[in-house]
Give the backbone structure.
Amino acid sequence: MTVLPVHDEDMLAQAAAEAADAGNAFVVDLEGYEGPLHLLLDLARRHKIDLVKISILKLADQYLAYVREAQAQRIDLAADYLLMAAWLAFLKSKLLLPSEKKDADELDPDALAGRLAFRLRRLDAMRKAVNELYEGNLDKRDVFPRGDPQLAKIIRKPLWNSTLHDVLKAFGDINTRKVKVQAHVIRRQPVVPLDTARRKLASLVPDLIDWASIQMMRAEDEESKDAPRRSEVASFFSAALELTKDRAVEIRQDQPFSDVYVRKAREALKAAE
């Protein structure tokens, strides 16, 4: 159990005073004291009054009489005074009973006073909260909601406008594309081999005394009969470049993209002369 420390000696008295109404205060008439109960509690705690002279029996009788009168009016106030009377009885029991060693779990009187003050404050706060609730505006009595409530407007923004038929058609198109897809086969294309073009051009070199166009040359063999013309020209041009490197022929082109001409090299012509 948590012990609430008491930092202010007036806490209990202040809480007791707040719990009691000015018009319904519990006034006791005992030997040695006459006045409100919460004031007696405060004086007893401050040791300003001799509790030995206070009769707890008379205090209990007067409390019961007060409770009988308050049952129809303020039973909550009677509960507060019961706590105060119990605290006074506890204080007097401490004076009358011989003091013994305190147990480890026994609470200090100041701690008990702090708990009592805390309970009184909490009870008073609950009372005030209830009163504030009842004093506020009540629905359909003080305030009224509007007759036609304005509902939230739902704005729908569809991301796709597709029907079930569209979905099924798209799925069918995917399957159709899968069926039609075939592997791409690279067909072998006939070409004029470079060796064939070089042998043919080398055989023509002795007769190439004058310039001859490469575009007019033909391979004329069985292997290259189906080769396209561009392959034939490319192979003869490559063969002419190799023979030029070997100084067997000469190459000439008058302008870009014009025909390429080839003839026997001058050194070979001079040697033949």
User: Anything to note?
Assistant: DSSP finds nine helices and five strands in the chain. Confidence is low (pLDDT under 50) at residues 1-10. Residues 26 and 89 are 16 Å apart (CA to CA).
